[in-house]
Design a protein that fits this description.
By secondary structure, the protein is α+β, with helices and mostly antiparallel strands. Helices cover 16% and strands 37% of the residues. The chain has a single domain (3-110, 130-286), classed as Acyl-CoA thioesterase, double hotdog domain (Porin), CATH 2.40.160.210. The chain is built from five helices and twelve strands. The protein has a twelve-stranded antiparallel beta sheet with strand order 1-2-4-5-6-3-9-12-11-10-8-7, with helices on one face.
Length: 293
């Protein structure tokens, strides 16, 4: 594996401390706190470690406090229920004696049933699009140091956006976008790992779609943007090391919150997952004193 994806896989492995108790490390990817997708992926892995012969089909999570990437994160798993077909787990992530995150996940025995899905949007293939996670040198020179570090940090995924946008400013546009993404190298053929990696990467580009209507970039410093909650539904098997299309839309923003939802398609058009997120979007010029989250 490429060292970037190998490091991420290692990050998701977790250290078992006791029955239902795990410890995870963090990586500084250039953001001021632990990347939310990392906590999401690690929490899902912790829950999965307590379930046998069943695969996650949904999760619902809340981000409660900023994570400190200089300290380990403890994941405490509650085995809420094991039924004939479904298992439910609740995970609490703890740092410095406080909850920073909690999540409920549901697991199911593989079962046949009804099948239908919406069609995949018609978009250009990824080979025709430029890599969108690497900023141009002339743009990097205009950015604050913390933002520059975020964009220059090597990522374990490559992204190719159908719509082009300046990282600092862009005209108001429809609150929707499509982005191709995949892991930078092959990943072990393990269904749980594949879904944990999808949970990790699903936190990229989702909430910022809610800012497109207003012509605000989350990197411009004009708004405070932070995830509040995150939900995912896994519909079909997937390969995270093959191209997936993230079709994102934001139906609403109100009350200093933005809402976005997305469908994730395999290249052959199968709907493999859906996700939704609400987050804080508060304009900086509206602040009086310290920002609150």
């Amino acid at each position: 594996m490429d060292p970037r994806i190998a490091d991420l896989v290692s990050l998701l492995e977790l250290e078992p401390l006791e029955v239902n108790l795990f410890r995870g490390e963090s990586r500084d990817i250039g953001s001021p706190q632990v990347f939310g997708g990392q906590v999401l992926g690690q929490a899902l892995m912790a829950a999965s470690r307590t379930v046998a012969d069943r695969i996650v089909h949904s999760l619902h999570a809340y981000f409660l406090r900023r994570g400190d990437f200089n300290a380990p994160i403890i994941y405490d798993v509650d085995r809420s229920r094991d039924g004939q077909s479904f298992s439910n787990r609740r995970v609490v992530a703890i740092q410095h004696g406080e909850q920073i995150f909690n999540m409920t996940a549901s697991f199911q025995l593989p079962q046949p049933g009804l099948e239908h899905q919406i069609p995949m949007p018609s978009v250009p293939p990824p080979e025709t699009l430029a890599e969108s996670s690497r900023a141009r040198p002339e743009l990097l020179a205009r950015l604050p140091e913390r933002v520059r570090r975020l964009l220059e940090t090597p990522r374990p995924f490559e992204f190719r956006s159908v719509q082009s946008a300046d990282a600092l400013q862009h005209p108001a546009a429809a609150p929707a976008r499509e982005i191709w993404f995949r892991a930078v190298s092959a990943v072990p053929d393990d269904a749980t790992l594949q879904r944990c990696l999808l949970a990790y990467v699903s936190d990229f580009y989702l909430l910022e779609t809610a800012t497109l209507r207003h012509g605000i970039s989350r990197l411009s410093g004009r708004a405070i943007v932070a995830s509040i909650d995150h939900a995912m539904w896994f519909h079909r098997p997937l390969r995270i090391d093959e191209w997936l299309l993230y079709a994102v839309e934001s139906p609403s923003a109100s009350g200093s919150r933005g809402f976005a939802r997305a469908s994730i398609f395999s290249r052959d058009g199968r709907l493999v997952a859906s996700t939704a997120q609400e987050g804080l979007i508060r304009l900086v010029e509206e602040q009086a004193g310290e920002p609150r989250e």
